[in-house]
Design goal:
Oligomer: homodimer
Low-confidence stretches of chain A: none
Order of helices and strands of chain A: HHEHEEEE
Largest interface: A-B, 46 and 46 residues
Mean pLDDT of chain A: 95
CATH class of chain A: Alpha Beta
CATH topology of chain A: Nuclear Transport Factor 2, Chain: A
Distance between the termini of chain A: 35 Å
Structural class of chain A: alpha+beta
Helix content of chain A: 10-25%
Largest sheet of chain A: 5 strands, mixed
Chain lengths: ~140, ~140
Protein backbone atom coordinates (compact mmCIF):
# COMPACT_ATOMS: atom_id res chain seq x y z
CA UNK A 1 0.00 0.00 0.00
CA UNK A 2 1.33 3.43 -0.89
CA UNK A 3 0.76 6.43 1.37
CA UNK A 4 -1.94 7.62 -1.06
CA UNK A 5 -3.68 4.21 -0.81
CA UNK A 6 -3.58 4.43 2.99
CA UNK A 7 -5.03 7.95 2.97
CA UNK A 8 -7.79 6.85 0.58
CA UNK A 9 -8.64 3.81 2.73
CA UNK A 10 -8.83 5.96 5.89
CA UNK A 11 -11.04 8.57 4.21
CA UNK A 12 -13.40 5.76 3.16
CA UNK A 13 -13.40 4.45 6.74
CA UNK A 14 -14.28 7.91 8.13
CA UNK A 15 -17.09 8.25 5.58
CA UNK A 16 -18.39 4.76 6.40
CA UNK A 17 -18.45 5.75 10.08
CA UNK A 18 -20.35 9.01 9.42
CA UNK A 19 -22.79 7.13 7.19
CA UNK A 20 -23.39 4.43 9.82
CA UNK A 21 -24.16 7.18 12.36
CA UNK A 22 -26.61 8.87 9.95
CA UNK A 23 -28.41 5.58 9.39
CA UNK A 24 -28.11 4.56 13.08
CA UNK A 25 -26.65 1.27 11.83
CA UNK A 26 -24.99 -0.45 14.81
CA UNK A 27 -23.35 -3.37 12.90
CA UNK A 28 -21.91 -0.99 10.26
CA UNK A 29 -20.62 1.35 12.97
CA UNK A 30 -19.04 -1.51 14.91
CA UNK A 31 -17.12 -2.63 11.80
CA UNK A 32 -15.24 0.70 11.71
CA UNK A 33 -13.58 0.21 15.12
CA UNK A 34 -11.69 -2.46 17.01
CA UNK A 35 -12.96 -4.34 20.07
CA UNK A 36 -10.27 -2.67 22.20
CA UNK A 37 -11.17 0.88 21.09
CA UNK A 38 -10.73 3.63 23.70
CA UNK A 39 -13.49 6.26 23.49
CA UNK A 40 -13.48 9.70 25.10
CA UNK A 41 -17.15 10.53 24.63
CA UNK A 42 -19.22 13.73 24.96
CA UNK A 43 -20.94 12.09 27.96
CA UNK A 44 -19.30 10.84 31.18
CA UNK A 45 -17.38 8.80 32.27
CA UNK A 46 -13.87 10.00 31.33
CA UNK A 47 -13.22 6.80 29.34
CA UNK A 48 -15.61 4.33 27.76
CA UNK A 49 -15.01 1.16 25.80
CA UNK A 50 -17.33 1.85 22.87
CA UNK A 51 -19.77 -0.91 23.88
CA UNK A 52 -22.62 -1.45 21.42
CA UNK A 53 -25.37 -1.50 24.08
CA UNK A 54 -24.60 2.14 24.84
CA UNK A 55 -24.68 3.03 21.14
CA UNK A 56 -28.01 1.21 20.67
CA UNK A 57 -29.55 3.09 23.62
CA UNK A 58 -28.21 6.40 22.28
CA UNK A 59 -29.49 5.73 18.73
CA UNK A 60 -32.94 5.05 20.27
CA UNK A 61 -33.05 8.66 21.57
CA UNK A 62 -33.13 9.98 17.94
CA UNK A 63 -36.44 10.39 16.17
CA UNK A 64 -35.58 9.46 12.59
CA UNK A 65 -32.12 9.82 10.98
CA UNK A 66 -29.30 11.90 12.41
CA UNK A 67 -27.47 14.64 10.51
CA UNK A 68 -23.71 14.07 10.80
CA UNK A 69 -21.19 16.11 8.79
CA UNK A 70 -17.45 16.78 9.22
CA UNK A 71 -15.75 20.07 8.42
CA UNK A 72 -12.02 20.93 8.13
CA UNK A 73 -10.99 17.27 8.16
CA UNK A 74 -7.21 16.92 8.42
CA UNK A 75 -5.51 13.55 8.10
CA UNK A 76 -1.97 12.54 9.10
CA UNK A 77 -1.00 9.12 7.80
CA UNK A 78 1.90 6.74 8.48
CA UNK A 79 2.47 3.13 7.54
CA UNK A 80 0.80 1.60 10.62
CA UNK A 81 -0.68 4.59 12.53
CA UNK A 82 -2.74 7.60 11.50
CA UNK A 83 -4.94 10.23 13.08
CA UNK A 84 -7.53 12.73 11.93
CA UNK A 85 -9.17 15.78 13.41
CA UNK A 86 -12.28 17.65 12.28
CA UNK A 87 -15.26 19.62 13.49
CA UNK A 88 -18.41 17.49 13.60
CA UNK A 89 -21.94 18.84 13.17
CA UNK A 90 -24.70 16.65 14.60
CA UNK A 91 -28.31 17.59 13.94
CA UNK A 92 -31.79 16.13 14.27
CA UNK A 93 -34.84 15.67 16.44
CA UNK A 94 -34.77 13.60 19.63
CA UNK A 95 -37.64 11.41 20.82
CA UNK A 96 -38.33 13.94 23.60
CA UNK A 97 -38.98 16.58 20.90
CA UNK A 98 -35.74 18.51 21.48
CA UNK A 99 -33.89 19.62 18.32
CA UNK A 100 -30.16 18.86 18.51
CA UNK A 101 -27.79 21.16 16.60
CA UNK A 102 -24.30 20.65 18.03
CA UNK A 103 -20.79 21.37 16.76
CA UNK A 104 -18.02 19.44 18.52
CA UNK A 105 -14.39 18.49 18.01
CA UNK A 106 -13.62 14.94 16.78
CA UNK A 107 -10.19 13.30 16.82
CA UNK A 108 -9.87 9.74 15.50
CA UNK A 109 -6.88 7.41 15.87
CA UNK A 110 -6.32 4.60 13.36
CA UNK A 111 -4.19 1.45 13.39
CA UNK A 112 -3.42 -0.87 10.51
CA UNK A 113 -4.27 -4.40 11.60
CA UNK A 114 -4.14 -7.47 9.38
CA UNK A 115 -3.51 -5.22 6.38
CA UNK A 116 -6.60 -3.04 6.91
CA UNK A 117 -7.27 0.18 8.83
CA UNK A 118 -9.51 0.37 11.91
CA UNK A 119 -10.39 3.09 14.41
CA UNK A 120 -8.75 2.36 17.78
CA UNK A 121 -9.39 5.71 19.48
CA UNK A 122 -12.14 8.36 19.38
CA UNK A 123 -12.14 11.68 21.22
CA UNK A 124 -15.31 13.82 21.07
CA UNK A 125 -15.68 17.09 22.97
CA UNK A 126 -16.86 20.63 23.34
CA UNK A 127 -14.82 23.16 25.34
CA UNK A 128 -16.35 24.63 28.49
CA UNK A 129 -16.84 28.17 29.79
CA UNK A 130 -14.04 29.53 31.98
CA UNK A 131 -16.37 32.10 33.63
CA UNK A 132 -16.92 29.97 36.74
CA UNK A 133 -20.12 28.37 35.39
CA UNK A 134 -18.20 25.38 33.93
CA UNK A 135 -20.97 25.17 31.35
CA UNK A 136 -20.12 23.12 28.26
CA UNK A 137 -20.00 25.38 25.19
CA UNK A 138 -22.65 23.57 23.15
CA UNK A 139 -23.63 26.62 21.07
CA UNK A 140 -20.33 27.31 19.28
CA UNK A 141 -20.14 27.46 15.47
CA UNK A 142 -16.97 27.20 13.37
CA UNK B 1 14.88 4.73 13.02
CA UNK B 2 13.25 1.50 14.17
CA UNK B 3 9.69 1.46 15.53
CA UNK B 4 11.18 1.14 19.04
CA UNK B 5 13.34 4.24 18.41
CA UNK B 6 10.27 6.16 17.25
CA UNK B 7 8.28 5.11 20.33
CA UNK B 8 11.17 6.13 22.59
CA UNK B 9 11.52 9.52 20.89
CA UNK B 10 7.78 10.20 21.22
CA UNK B 11 7.71 9.21 24.90
CA UNK B 12 10.59 11.65 25.48
CA UNK B 13 8.67 14.36 23.64
CA UNK B 14 5.55 13.76 25.77
CA UNK B 15 7.65 13.91 28.95
CA UNK B 16 9.38 17.12 27.76
CA UNK B 17 5.94 18.63 27.17
CA UNK B 18 4.65 17.66 30.64
CA UNK B 19 7.85 18.99 32.21
CA UNK B 20 7.58 22.31 30.33
CA UNK B 21 4.02 22.68 31.63
CA UNK B 22 5.12 21.94 35.22
CA UNK B 23 7.86 24.57 34.97
CA UNK B 24 5.62 26.97 33.00
CA UNK B 25 8.45 27.19 30.46
CA UNK B 26 7.01 28.74 27.27
CA UNK B 27 10.08 28.27 25.00
CA UNK B 28 10.46 24.60 26.06
CA UNK B 29 6.74 24.00 25.50
CA UNK B 30 6.82 25.66 22.08
CA UNK B 31 9.67 23.38 20.97
CA UNK B 32 7.41 20.31 21.40
CA UNK B 33 4.88 21.44 18.76
CA UNK B 34 4.84 22.77 15.23
CA UNK B 35 3.83 26.29 14.19
CA UNK B 36 0.81 24.87 12.37
CA UNK B 37 -0.44 22.86 15.37
CA UNK B 38 -4.24 22.51 15.72
CA UNK B 39 -5.35 22.68 19.36
CA UNK B 40 -8.75 21.66 20.73
CA UNK B 41 -8.42 23.24 24.17
CA UNK B 42 -10.41 22.96 27.43
CA UNK B 43 -11.48 26.59 26.88
CA UNK B 44 -13.38 28.02 23.90
CA UNK B 45 -13.19 28.57 20.96
CA UNK B 46 -13.67 25.19 19.22
CA UNK B 47 -10.23 25.45 17.58
CA UNK B 48 -7.15 27.43 18.57
CA UNK B 49 -3.75 27.70 16.98
CA UNK B 50 -1.62 27.15 20.08
CA UNK B 51 -0.36 30.74 20.11
CA UNK B 52 2.24 31.47 22.78
CA UNK B 53 0.59 34.68 24.01
CA UNK B 54 -2.38 32.62 25.19
CA UNK B 55 -0.07 30.13 26.92
CA UNK B 56 1.86 32.95 28.64
CA UNK B 57 -1.39 34.51 29.91
CA UNK B 58 -2.62 31.11 31.14
CA UNK B 59 0.69 30.32 32.90
CA UNK B 60 0.38 33.71 34.67
CA UNK B 61 -2.85 32.49 36.33
CA UNK B 62 -0.88 29.82 38.27
CA UNK B 63 0.65 30.69 41.63
CA UNK B 64 3.88 28.65 41.59
CA UNK B 65 4.44 25.43 39.67
CA UNK B 66 1.68 23.31 38.17
CA UNK B 67 1.21 19.61 38.89
CA UNK B 68 0.84 17.73 35.60
CA UNK B 69 0.80 13.92 35.42
CA UNK B 70 -0.44 11.47 32.78
CA UNK B 71 -2.10 8.14 33.54
CA UNK B 72 -2.88 5.17 31.24
CA UNK B 73 -0.76 6.58 28.41
CA UNK B 74 -1.22 4.55 25.24
CA UNK B 75 0.90 5.18 22.16
CA UNK B 76 0.30 4.06 18.55
CA UNK B 77 3.32 4.63 16.32
CA UNK B 78 3.90 4.51 12.57
CA UNK B 79 6.81 5.63 10.42
CA UNK B 80 5.60 9.22 9.89
CA UNK B 81 2.45 9.54 12.05
CA UNK B 82 1.65 8.60 15.65
CA UNK B 83 -0.94 9.38 18.29
CA UNK B 84 -1.27 8.99 22.04
CA UNK B 85 -4.11 9.17 24.52
CA UNK B 86 -4.01 9.45 28.29
CA UNK B 87 -5.79 10.90 31.30
CA UNK B 88 -4.11 14.08 32.50
CA UNK B 89 -4.18 15.32 36.10
CA UNK B 90 -3.55 19.03 36.56
CA UNK B 91 -3.17 20.40 40.08
CA UNK B 92 -2.06 23.57 41.84
CA UNK B 93 -3.06 26.93 43.23
CA UNK B 94 -4.22 29.78 41.01
CA UNK B 95 -3.40 33.44 41.64
CA UNK B 96 -7.04 34.01 42.66
CA UNK B 97 -6.55 31.47 45.48
CA UNK B 98 -8.60 28.70 43.88
CA UNK B 99 -7.10 25.19 44.08
CA UNK B 100 -7.24 23.39 40.73
CA UNK B 101 -7.52 19.58 40.79
CA UNK B 102 -8.75 18.48 37.38
CA UNK B 103 -8.68 15.19 35.48
CA UNK B 104 -9.18 15.49 31.72
CA UNK B 105 -8.66 13.47 28.54
CA UNK B 106 -5.60 14.26 26.41
CA UNK B 107 -5.05 13.06 22.84
CA UNK B 108 -1.84 14.08 21.05
CA UNK B 109 -1.06 13.70 17.34
CA UNK B 110 2.55 13.52 16.15
CA UNK B 111 4.21 13.93 12.76
CA UNK B 112 7.80 13.14 11.81
CA UNK B 113 9.27 16.21 10.16
CA UNK B 114 12.87 16.59 9.08
CA UNK B 115 13.69 13.30 10.79
CA UNK B 116 12.31 14.33 14.20
CA UNK B 117 8.91 14.04 15.89
CA UNK B 118 6.73 17.03 16.74
CA UNK B 119 3.22 17.47 18.12
CA UNK B 120 0.86 18.71 15.37
CA UNK B 121 -2.46 18.19 17.17
CA UNK B 122 -3.67 18.40 20.79
CA UNK B 123 -7.17 17.60 22.03
CA UNK B 124 -7.98 18.31 25.71
CA UNK B 125 -11.43 17.79 27.20
CA UNK B 126 -13.78 16.78 29.93
CA UNK B 127 -17.16 15.23 29.13
CA UNK B 128 -20.32 17.11 30.11
CA UNK B 129 -23.49 16.18 32.02
CA UNK B 130 -26.38 14.89 29.92
CA UNK B 131 -28.95 15.84 32.60
CA UNK B 132 -29.93 19.08 30.85
CA UNK B 133 -27.49 21.22 32.87
CA UNK B 134 -24.74 20.85 30.20
CA UNK B 135 -22.27 21.28 33.06
CA UNK B 136 -18.70 20.16 32.26
CA UNK B 137 -17.78 17.15 34.39
CA UNK B 138 -14.74 18.68 36.09
CA UNK B 139 -14.91 16.44 39.18
CA UNK B 140 -14.39 13.00 37.61
CA UNK B 141 -11.56 10.73 38.75
CA UNK B 142 -10.20 7.73 36.83
Amino acid sequence: MTAADDARAIRSLIEARSDALRRKDVPALSRTGTRDITVYSLAPPLVSAGGLDGVRAWFATWDGPMGYELRDLKLTVGDRAAFSHALAHMTGRRTDGVETDLWFRLTLGFSKRGGGWKITHEHHSTPFAMDGSFRAATDLKP
